[in-house]
Each structure stands twice: as C-alpha cells, then as structure tokens.
Design brief:
- The chain is mainly α and 193 residues long.
- The chain folds into 2 domains: 82 residues, Rna Polymerase Sigma Factor, Chain: A (Orthogonal Bundle), CATH 1.10.1740.10; 79 residues, Winged helix-like DNA-binding domain superfamily/Winged helix DNA-binding domain (Arc Repressor Mutant, subunit A, Orthogonal Bundle).
- The protein is built from 9 helices and no strands.
- Helix 1 packs antiparallel against helix 2, helix 1 packs parallel to helix 3 and helix 8 crosses helix 9.
- The protein is elongated and about 75 Å long.
C-alpha cells in the first residue's frame, strides 16, 4: 500500500512523548516504570515506522501500544505477587501524605491515588476517556474490546471512583475533626469541653 505521509521519528516522539508517558503513569502509578514503558513504546515505533500510514494512525498506534505495555507491566507485577497499590503507598507515602495536606491542595494527587485503585480495565477506559478525550468507540478500537464492554467499564469505573472518593472524603473529614479537636485541647468547635 502506498501513501504520501512520511513519518519523522523525532517529530513523532516530540509530539507524543507526554501522552505516552502520561498514559503509562496513570495506568501503572509508577513514574520509573512509566518512563521505561514510554521508552519501550518509542523503540517499538522506530521498528514499525514504515507501517504507520498517517499522523492519526501513529497517534492511535502509540495509544494502543502504551496501553498494552502498561497492562503487561501490571500483569508481570501481579505474577511476582507484588501488591502494586501497597507498593505505591510505601514508595510514595500516599496515605500519610494525603492525610497531612489540605483537601484542595492535593486534589490531583488524591484523584490519581483513587484512580490507581480501580481494576485495570476500568482504569484504562477512564484514562482514555477523560485524559485522551476519546469516544467509547475510539476506546473500544484502542483496547480491542467491544463498545458495550467499554461503556460498562466507564460506567462501573465512575461509580466505583465516586464511591471511593466519597469514602475518602468522609475519612478525611473525620481525621481533620479529630486533629482539630486535639489541637484545641479537647474543646469542640462549638466551645463545649
């Protein structure tokens, strides 16, 4: 098949490196692993550069490979019986860190931590929908899944994310009230002892 588009490797890397890294980071929750995945994706793209037919095809291909490599990395971790979420909390101190900061100051970090707790398929669908602004049909194509399955993952993922966010917010309010009470020497906010 002949086509007029001539891919430029450096230009494609420049244009898409942040997208590929961001997808890998949101899927794995691990910055170092996301960097490795992004590097692997671009090395593979270099080997398949002649097969890319257009700029849109290159973007689609990069998203698909980034999502697949991220899923592979998560599966390898599971096989080694490493609980990724506990590891993330231990490495990055998410629980202690989020409890110590004001709610609004770290909303992005809190959302990232909650997103990381979702099942892989739901997390993938949400990341592609809300980070990449893809339609359910485009997500289905990227993940090689039926559209109905993608819509289900989106619906269930949002429902689970909302439930976990509500629970997290209640826990934050409870911790904050307890801390404020201790700081006030046992005096409640309405002045009662």
């Amino acid at each position: 098949m002949t086509h007029d588009w001539q891919p430029d490797f450096e230009q494609l890397v420049e244009e898409h490196q942040s997208m590929v890294f961001s997808l890998a980071l949101r899927m794995t929750g691990d910055r170092g692993l996301a960097e490795e995945i992004a590097q692997d994706v671009f090395m593979e793209m270099d080997r398949h550069l002649g097969k890319l037919e257009s700029a849109a095809h290159a973007t689609f291909w990069l998203r698909r490979v980034a999502m697949n490599r991220s899923a592979d990395a998560l599966r390898r971790r599971r096989v080694r019986r490493v609980d990724l979420w506990v590891e993330i909390e231990e490495q990055h101190g998410l629980r202690a860190e989020t409890a110590a900061r004001p709610l609004g100051a770290s909303m992005g970090a809190r959302l990232e931590a909650l997103l990381a707790t979702l099942p892989e398929a739901q997390r993938a669908a949400l990341v592609l929908r809300y980070q990449e602004d893809l339609t359910p049909e485009e997500i289905a194509s990227t993940l090689a899944a039926p559209v109905a399955t993608v819509k289900s993952h989106l619906q269930r993922g949002l429902k689970l994310l909302r439930a976990r966010a509500a629970s997290h917010l209640k826990e934050y309010v409870r911790e904050r009230s307890s801390r404020d009470s201790r700081l006030m020497g046992g005096v409640s906010s309405d002045g009662r002892v």
